[in-house]
Amino acid sequence: MTTAFISHQDCALHNMGPEHPESPIRLAAIRKVLDRTGLLQELDCQASVAATPEQIQLAHARLYQQRLERLQPSEGVVYTDEDTALCPDSLHAASLAAGSTILATNRVLTGVNDNAFCAVRPPGHHAEHDLPMGFCFFNNVAIGALHALQQNGISRVAIVDFDVHHCNGTVDIFKDRPEVLVCSTFQHPYYPERYHDIRRDHIVNCPLPAFSEAALFRNALEQRWLPALEAHKPDIIFISAGFDAHAEDPMADLQLSEEDYRWATQLLTDVARRHCAGRIVSVLEGGYNPVALAFSVQAHVEVLAGY
Ligand SMILES: [Zn+2]
């Protein structure tokens, strides 16, 4: 098996200030652990290529993209909401993050790689069609999924999201696209409080109360995600891989461990093998304790790589 590891040093240039939890340290911690364990050397490491404006507009309004460009400062930071800020390099980093999912999709669909993990930032799953939110500007996984749907032989896509926050942006973009199944587990009630109660057959929202143990998370995947995935029969699976439901994460109150991420990834790789020749594109979302994040990514990528 070959697993692509797609990243770019310029993803570190997006910097919302020294106190901000969505910091460049996150990617450095991941790389350090994967390098030290020898896993990185087993992966097919590729540099992200920036998404074009047309590719970003697969998921976002042109006027939204132009508005972000006008807002981006030439120095300092400009806040787009109370916790999301643009610095001079933010949209360059965001374009690389979005482009990584397109590169990953192309490599997986042409069989160059069996699957791919995109270690990129800023994250994407809160970004709606025309609204930046929750540290996100461009919805990376949505852009990859919409690109995949333009390719020959791809008519059904699944996006699964185990970040501790609900993927309001992804649901916003796909709420009227039943060819895209969206499955999400998330702490509730909690940020962002949008679209978590939407009723659609292709949107599988699984709220989990604060301080839920791993058993509830695993139960949601087995009882809710698995039947939906089996019925949908996706041609490719995208993972919004946020690791902030980890017990050591400072952002929220779920109680997962590295072993739960390993288990979830195994469940998803089994589904992918049954339905779509193992094709998975996984994209980093949250995870704000750098150590817990890095070891969780290690467990996730080990399963993708067949360990
Ligand atoms: Zn999150």
TrEMBL record:
Pfam families: Hist_deacetyl (PF00850). It comes from the Bacteria. Residues 20-304 form the Histone deacetylase domain. InterPro entries: HDACs (IPR000286), His_deacetylse_dom (IPR023801), His_deacetylse_dom_sf (IPR037138), Ureohydrolase_dom_sf (IPR023696). Belongs to the histone deacetylase family. This is Histone deacetylase family protein. The lineage of its organism: Bacteria, Pseudomonadati, Pseudomonadota, Gammaproteobacteria, Oceanospirillales.
